[in-house]
Each structure stands twice: as structure tokens, then as C-alpha cells.
């Protein structure tokens, strides 16, 4: 093989470096939050079986770059035994394990401590709690306080995710104060802007306008695609963090067929996902529709997940975007090589 061809082959192989496996254990949830990207509630059926979860983790462990398995929902604590067993497997294979939950189960300090101790004993390393105005309609603040205390006692890395938009009463700062965590900088309480995906797409025009104009609305390149791989509750493989409905058009494989590594290899060869990683879906839609009678403008979107939702739910728009990605295939590869070279140079300088 010629040197140039070998270089491109090695470079393409290096693109497949997922570090995070996200397992959508279930879409069922005791809450029915107005901003939920999956429209979760207790009427969603199905979940990953213990055997499915084991298969996912074993496949992920074969990928050298993989670092952590994260259990999400719905709420994965509806299947706490499956999660605890899976955490133990992940730990035995040298992978960290985390969970995202609403803390609906932390009704008392004793119950919270028992639940967290079970997971910590299995090998759980981190926990993310979700709490904001919509969550507060279903989960009292003392449940969050109970879960925080239990996580701290067990030595877990703890985060609290707060979704905000215009007029939100609960913010990262207010929640830190309400929980008495002002002197605990090691607990990361952070904000994200609500996406207009799933149930969040059904809000009124004023709410959606507030999201679009929020100072923290992000419209740049996607840092998740090809670095995070999600397995949905039916075993479908998705090449990003996947915080939008589980469209078939965004599925790149299945755990019982291609498996995670092969599916992600195929995704890494797909110019559309690579374009999303380089420029982001907002810029892509603006470019593809620029000559339309009513073009999509960058400032029309409240975030990149909303833009991807627009792309992957519309077969017609997806076909146009894919055609444009194919036409830019060479440019995309050139940009990737240049950026990879810049990163390598920066790492070399930092090492000196």
C-alpha cells in the first residue's frame, strides 16, 4: 500500500475513538417532565434485559478508547438490580460506571443510602441527579437532598444537572443554596438550556422564543457525535449522546447484529456524522437551505439537538443534507486531517 493510502487508512481508523457508552435502560419514568426529550412517562414499555446490558458492556470493553458506561432513562433506577449487576461487570472489565436519575427513589435518608450503597458496592463511580422546575413538579427537594447525602457518604463523583430557560425559578445557584452546598465546590451543579425535542417541542411560542434567545444556547460543532455511543432500550446503536427521540434514521446498527464497534466504524466513515462533528447541525442546515425561499437561519435554533431533530425526523430534509455531505466529502476529510495535525502539534508543544 502506498504511503498516502496507508496514512488515510490509519487516520480513518483513528476516528473511531468513542469514550462513553450511554445505555438507555428504559424510557419509562415515574415523572412526566414538560421538557423531556424522550417524552418519558410510566406508559413507555420495554427495557434492555440484563443479557442485553451485559452484551453492550462486553462489546464496549473491546474498544480500546472506551472509558465509562453511563446508565440513563427514562429512569434506570426502575431497574436497579439490572443496573447494579451491570455496574459490577463494567468494573470487572476496567470501566467506570455512572448513572443519571431523578432521585424519585430517595424518599428518606435510609432508602437513599441503601440504594446508593448497593450501586457503590457494585462499583459505581459517579452519579448525576436531574433537578429543575419540571422535575420539581414530581420530586420534592428533600429527595434530592437525601440522594446528595448518600452519594457523598459513598464517595461518588456527584453532579446535578439543571435545565433552564427564560423565567426558570430553579437555577444552579439557587439549587446550590437550597441544598446548602455553597462551600462544596467539588459538587458540580451545572445548567443546560432546554431543547425543543420530544415533549419539549410541544411548548408555546413564547417559551420556544425564550430558548432561542437564551445566552447559553449552543449552535456550534457537536462534541458528542462519534465520541459517545448510545444504545436505546431496544438495542439500537446511535452515534451520539442521543437526547432526541429515537428516530430509525439516526440508528447505525444493533447490538445483536453489527455490534457497537462495527456500527461506530461505519458511522465514522459516514460524511454526514463527520460534518456534524466539524461544523454542527445548525450550520449545516443554514448552508443546505441557504437558497430556499425561506432558509433556516442559525439564530432560529435553540441548540444543536433541536437542529439534529429537524434533520433526522424529515426524510426529505435528511436526503438533502446527505447529498450535500457527500458533495463535501473531500473537504470534510481535508479539514479533519488539518485539525488532527493541529491537535498533534499542540500536544507536542504541551509535552515539551
Structure, described:
By secondary structure, the protein is an alpha/beta fold. It folds into two domains: 203 residues, Alpha-Beta Barrel (TIM Barrel), CATH 3.20.20.70; 81 residues, no CATH class. It has 14 helices and nine strands. Strands 6-5-4-3-2-1-7-8-9 form a nine-stranded mixed beta sheet.
Labels describing this entry:
2 domains, TIM Barrel, disordered N terminus, 43% helix, 352 residues
Question: What's a concise summary of this model?
Answer:
The chain is α/β, with parallel strands linked by helices. It is built from 14 helices and 9 strands. It has a 9-stranded mixed sheet.
Task: Describe the secondary-structure layout.
Elements: H1 3-14, E1 20-24, H2 50-60, E2 68-72, H3 80-92, E3 96-101, H4 109-122, E4 126-130, H5 133-136, H6 141-153, E5 157-164, H7 172-178, E6 188-193, H8 205-212, E7 228-231, E8 236-238, E9 253-254, H9 260-268, H10 271-279, H11 281-288, H12 304-312, H13 315-327, H14 329-351
Parallel strand pairs: 1-2, 1-7, 2-3, 3-4, 4-5, 5-6
Antiparallel strand pairs: 7-8, 8-9
Helix pairs in contact: 2-3, 3-4, 4-6, 10-11, 10-14
